[in-house]
Amino acid sequence: MTSRNDCATGAVPLSVEAALQRLLESARPIADSERVSTFVARNRVLAEPLRSPVDLPCWANSAMDGYAVNCAELAAHGGRLRVAQRIPAGSCGTPLAAGTAARIFTGAPVPDTADAVVVQEVCTRDDDWVQMPVDIAPSANIRLRGEDVRAGDEVIAAGTRLNPQHVGLAASVGADRLAVRRRLRVAILASGDELVMPGQALAPGQIYNSNRFVYHALLDALGCDIVDLGIVADSLDATIAALQHATTQADLVLASGGVSVGEEDHVRPAIRQLGSLDLWRIAMRPGKPLAFGRIDDVPFIGSPGNPVSMFVTFCLFVRPFILRMQGVAGDLMPLMLPARAGFDWPAPDQRREYQRARLERDADGNSVVRVFQSRSPAALTSLTWANGVVVIPEGRTIAAGEAVDFIPFSELMT
User: Fold this and answer.
1) What is the CA radius of gyration of the chain?
2) What is the mean pLDDT of residues 61-84?
């Protein structure tokens, strides 16, 4: 790896897409896997395809509460049949005798010789007899065996990050344990003598270390194991020692700040002394610089120190990199929602803007995007006010009412 795109060289900034492509091409999925209970598989990445050993449904069953009938018998008896049996869910009935129906409930197996279920709302019960419409089509209100899944079908592909619906599907085919990639171990580093932890008194020139908490929350949402290196003193030796320790404990090392060219920015020279580093200029706001390197083959990503810049670059670059390392397959770009601008943007910028924004409904029920009043990369209040970011393309002005793309935080943080 070289530093041909170092910020100090004045090279042309990378586009967001080019920077993300470079990162993802460098991401090496972890190979280790383990079997875990399906109960705790949420957010884990499936290591091998899951195939169903059974049909779903396992047998033809009633989709409604009502009466199981044979359509030919129903027509032959003018819709009046004797109720000869009762079949609740979890029980099995017997084949229908001539001139009879079965009281049946949702999910119960449809008895042999029955070919339809008549919903109870259109039936009139008279003791042991029931009057029903005669124009009932075969298969009405019946879930047929295997109509959802056939035995042997692949129901969840390898590389799928398991959401609650995947866990439910796995359980429905009888999988009590799943083969998943092991959890990714991510080390986080905060350098700066000005940083102190909440709960401590602030001395002049000190600030609370909010980035450490943001890192924890973002990584926890991604299902990572966190190796917290704490606050590292502003010295080259301390930074080198922390990074060397991190590479023995983690699959990925993250740092916010400390990768610039200042005399007190020790992360960058430490990385170069221990391994290799690229420092990219990205044509975006906030979050222009992004550092990527390796130490003993362990990848390192350094984000800007301003909290909003760190947050945005994590969501757009670090998150997809982590997902790829976890083994997630397919497109990792966030979903963008079309909306209308509820703001004016009269001054175009050479960089793409990811402005903190809130998607709301106007009086007519239309989706409208409002933007935060400040563009400051240090204003964490903008992130708590917003529910996403609006994408403002390079060189574009926007007038209220024009179409814009909005990325909800739900696409960027989970």
Assistant:
1) 30
2) 97
Q: Which residue has the tokens 């920077």?
A: 19
pTM: 0.88
- Answer for the pair 74, 134: CB distance below 8 angstroms, yes or no: yes
The total number of residues written for the chain in this structure: 414
Q: List alpha helices for 96-189, DSSP H.
A: 164-172
Encoded tokens for 361: 């409904």
Looking at per-residue pLDDT, the higher value among 238 and 174 belongs to: 174
Residue 390 near residue 404 (C-beta atoms within 8 A) = yes
DSSP label at 50? Answer: E
Sign of the Cα torsion 94, 100, 104, 109 reads positive
The residue behind tokens 């574009």 is 396
Q: In what order do the strands lie in the sheet with 129-131?
A: 116-119, 66-69, 100-104, 80-87, 129-131, 124-126
pLDDT of the residue at 268: 83
Q: Which residue ranges form the domains of the chain, and what is each CATH number?
A: 7-32+182-325 (3.40.980.10), 34-56+147-181 (3.90.105.10), 61-143 (2.170.190.11), 337-411 (2.40.340.10)
Cis peptide preceding 286, ω within 30 of 0: yes
